[in-house]
Structures are given as structure tokens and as C-alpha cells.
DNA sequence: GAGTCGAGGTTATACGTATGACTTGGAGGC
DNA sequence: GCCTCCAAGTCATACGTATAACCTCGACTC
């Protein structure tokens, strides 16, 4: 270990200030009113500053029995979306004196691993986004307070859930495209077994089938630009009348679809309309800018953290899904040929 | 607190297995060879499993004097790049029994805050990417083993550094564009006071000025699509001969530049060539696909973590910058008008 | 049959902190 | 002049773990 000497402890500070260790703890813990005089308190604070004292968190956590640390589990870090979720959660956490530890799922981190092995820091609770069932049971087995993000509220886990109102987003997309006159749809679905994607498929089917004369085909693709490119190209090359509107499960898929459409010599939105879901930076980087559903990732993170705090304090988390909003841009227009 | 009862401790396990607490610690810590019989060891393991025992990390950390936890500080989480860095670092860390805690800089997390307040988990060391000087002094004051990513090796901090060979990437970009015949350049520079961007500016100037008859203008923009759009539009509207090649400090800036070029009615690469730096997913999402410098973010993270482990063990970290590679795609071509 | 030795444990302790219980030295009341 | 009481501290302890030091008992040596 390269640590020059050993870290100063509260006892070192006490000695330097000529008081007991208890007094140091009292002063630094801001519990000294009526127990320590203002002058000694100042002397302690000065000694602590001089020595560069920082309390040993392990010891404090042990003594207190909690860590004020929380684990945020996300499916992958490679999207802006979860970065936003983290930001929101960390903001709320900081306001309450909590820290947030991030645990991206093990994709590419070798064999499936125990989230808790990675987060060596002891935890007070967990916020988990759609994740593998085995990891979930590990968490449940640990009896840790848990909040699930974007998960089936009727799931048997009995954990609190915080969800985006994805179904409403899909309703807005469907209404927008139907209003424009579209009747032949292609649903580019994420090839990921997660509740949030099931909702998209279910709600889209429900909305479109409610209107007579509509047809919906579905193509599945992994969430990557190349995957979406391949899947879309194949789907559009299928014989029969070409869809006039392409509903994508998220923006990244839409970006891949753009490339497929271009490759086939078609134009957006003249020949085919495209919609996404997320409203990442990517949505306005591509040409034309993407009509998509804006998800407020930071608010999502904030609500998740607030829910966890509620659970920790024995309160009931705030109910209600988080509203989402359709953002109409240049990738949607009325179909050219009826 | 919603925790049903209190967590089982090693003493509970000991009682259940009919042995002493020490024996439990020995068995579970895998240090029992020749000290505990195989049958008792199995009995202990079974009791631990039945009770759902998990060691209290705070107590262990306190006892051991280290946490096997590391803090990764990144400027912001909103880019794929640092997600890759994290992934690489976490992989190496996991191989060595370490965990990684992420600390995105405080942008939007309220007033500038102490990284350590957020990372309530006690830390063994820090990997820090280009960051504010005040945060750095806080770290140094703490005497924590430190590895800096993408920072001036001659900096006075005396910390180990791990750098990408950005200068070589710029050399490759310059050589590529000069080979194509370009002589009038616009450098779209990130408006961020960081060593890694200084290197780009310095090296680009050095390379281009070495060739007679070249001219270089510089425009500054914040790293965002809109910022780049505005700055590029203004720069290209300037009177005088138009640049034929646009060198951007990163891919996001290039994506913004694309929009500016389109808005001015110009085509890429026919009227103007554009290069980026990073090779994010964005680079192939835009049309035409971007010629850019590929940075291996995961390798960067791995090397960073390896360096920190070396420091922790008193070894000298591996020297040498991480190689980068120019990826030529459709956004560069010879200039149309000489 | 006394001595040795190792297998298979146990006991005791320290890590650094927070806090409830105790102490002390005066100031003030009557 | 004795009692009370409060301000300003101090003392002692517990949190759960890992490990060094100690103990015990049976097998084996000579």
C-alpha cells in the first residue's frame, strides 16, 4: 500500500485538540449543542482541518448499522437514458445524504455475477431496472428494500415499482400516425425480454387493431444500429404492400432503420414515416430529426430514489406513472400513396 | 426501516452450526485448511446458506483496513465513451476482487460537491478522468492512491497517468486529409478546458503548419449537437475562401457540424470533408458515416484499473500511451475545387 | 508410559466510530 | 453554608469481523 502514513482517526484529532474522542465525534457530528462550548468546538474543528481528518466510513457504517448508500442497477451503461436516470437518482440521494453506487449488468463483465460482490460497499437498499430474474432473487433473498424501475406492477415480487407511462406514449404515437392517415404499419421491436417492451407491443396492437383496415407486421432486432439495419432491410424487402409507417421500440433502432430505408432508396418521411422512443441526443442528430416519445430519464431517477427513501422510512411511495410526451419532428408525414 | 428482522451475523451462523464465531469466519473466508475438519466446514456452510448469511461489509472493511472498492470519476455519464471506460475498469476490478463506484462530476447535481461525500463507501483508491482542479486537491489532500486518465503527464500532481495517444490520432487525421489534397482547414474545438483538448489543438496546428500553403481557422463550441451546429454555421458563413475540411474534436461535435453543413446547402464529403474523434455509435448512425479516430474506451478503463492496482501494490504501472486508429468512412474525400 | 505433535478447534482482541450513562466544577437559591 | 442544577465534558461500550494466540485431546514415538 502506498498510503504514506496511517490516516488520522478521531482519537488523533482529540489529542491534538486536547479533548476526548467523544467530544470530537460530538462536534463533527453536529450534535454538540449544550454539550460542548463554542470555543472548544472551534478548537476541534481546527484540529480536524489541520490533520486532514476524514471519518472512517467503515467504522461509522458499522456503528450506525446503515450506510446511506444505495445501489442503482441498470441494464447497461451505454445509453444516455440510464445516465439520466443515474443523475436524477444521485441528485435526490445527495439531498438526503445518500450516495449511489452504480451496478451495470454483467454484459461483457464475464460470467453472471452477484451484484453485491461488485458493490462491496454495504447497501441500505436497491433500485433495479428491468433485469435478470436470478439477480432479483438474490436481492430478495437479501431482504433488502427494493424499488423496481419499469417493471410489471403485478409481478410477484411485491416490491415497489416506479414506471414511465410507456403505454400512453404508444397511444400518442398510434394516434399521431393514424391521424396522418397511415394504415399499414411495421413494428420494429427490441429483441429483449423485458416488461417495458412487452407493454409497447401489447399497447400498439391494441390501438391499431381498434381501427378497421389497419395491418401490423412485426420485426425483431437487438438494440443496436446494425441489428436494426439488418432486420428492417429484411422486413421491408418482404413481398406484399410496403408499410407506410415504421414504429420503433427506441431511438437507436430508429437510427438503424433510417440506414435501411436509405439503402433501399426510399426517403423519410415521403416514402415511409418513422417513430422512435426515448428522445436521446441521437434523435436530433440524424436527418430528418426523429419524431419520438420523450422520456424524462432524470425525473425517472428522481422518482425511483424518492420511492426508495419512502420504503426505507416506512412510508408508502408516491403512486402514479410518470407522464411521457410525443415530440413531433420531421420523420413523420402523411403517406404518399393511399 | 422495512428490514423484517435483523440480519444474521457470523455469530448466528456459529450458533446454528454449533461452533465458534471464529470457525465460521475461517470457513467462509476459505482459510480453514488444517484448522477445521471438512465435515464441520460443510456444516458451517450449510448453516450460512440456511440463514441467508451475508458478511457485514462495514465490519469487514473496518477490520481489514481496506475496502477493495475504487472510485471512478468521470466528467459526465452522458457519453458512451465513459460507459466503456467503466466497463473495462469494472471487468479488471472484478477479476481482482474489487468493486468500482462511479462518481459523475457534479454537473447538474447541485453545487460543487466533494466526491467523497457522494461515495459514502470508503475507498482504497481513485481513478480520475480530466476534472476540476479543486476536486483534485481534495483527493490529493486525502493521500489516496490516484491514477489520472487523459491528463498532462508533466502535471505537478505526481500521480500515475494513463493516456490515449490522442496526438497520434490527430497526426493520422492530418495525414489523411493532407493526402486527399486538403489545404484549407477549420478546427471545430471543444470549448472545455481539458488537457486532452489542448493536445488536439497543439498537434493539429503542428502538423498542418509543417506543410506550406495550408491555412487553419478555429471555432469553439460546447460539446453538444446544438452548440456545434451554431458555431459551425457561424464559422462557415465567414467571408473568405471556404474551408474544405472540418476537423472536429469529437464525434458529437461532428454530428452538429453535419447539420450546419446541410443547413447551408452543402454536401458531405463533396463540398466539405468532416472528421470526428471517438468512434461512438453516433459515428455510423449519421449519413454519410463519419471518418473518425477510434478510441478503445474499454481498454482505456482496463489500463486505468491495472495502473491503480499496480500503485496499490507498490509496483510501477505499465508505461506507454494506448494506441488509437483512424477509421476512414464516407465523410472524407478529395476537395472538389482546388 | 512419559513426551511430542498436529488436527481441530476456542478465546480474546482490535479496527474507529457514535452515543447513553456518568462525572465534575461552579453559579445560584434560600 | 448547604443543596440543586446545569453546562461542559469524559467514560465505557457495542457494532461484526478476522486473526493471532492459546487450548485440548488422541495418536504415535521411543
Automatic annotation (TrEMBL), chains A, B:
Record's keyword terms, sorted: DNA-binding, Transcription, Transcription regulation
**One Gene Ontology term of the molecular function aspect:** DNA-binding transcription factor activity
- For whether the record's keyword set contains DNA-binding, the answer is yes
Q: Give the matching PROSITE patterns.
A: HTH_LACI_2
Family matches, as Pfam families: LacI, Peripla_BP_3
Decide whether keyword Methyltransferase is in the record. no
Top-level lineage group: Bacteria
Q: Which residues form a coiled coil?
A: none
UniProt-listed InterPro entries = HTH_LacI (IPR000843), LacI/GalR-like_sensor (IPR046335), Lambda_DNA-bd_dom_sf (IPR010982), Peripla_BP_I (IPR028082)
SUPFAM superfamilies listed in its UniProt record: lambda repressor-like DNA-binding domains, Periplasmic binding protein-like I
The HTH lacI-type domain sits at 8-64
CDD domains, per database record: HTH_LacI, PBP1_LacI_sugar_binding-like
Q: Which PANTHER family match?
A: LACI-RELATED TRANSCRIPTIONAL REPRESSOR, TRANSCRIPTIONAL REGULATORY PROTEIN
Record protein name field: LacI family transcriptional regulator
What organism is recorded for this protein? Answer: Streptomyces canus
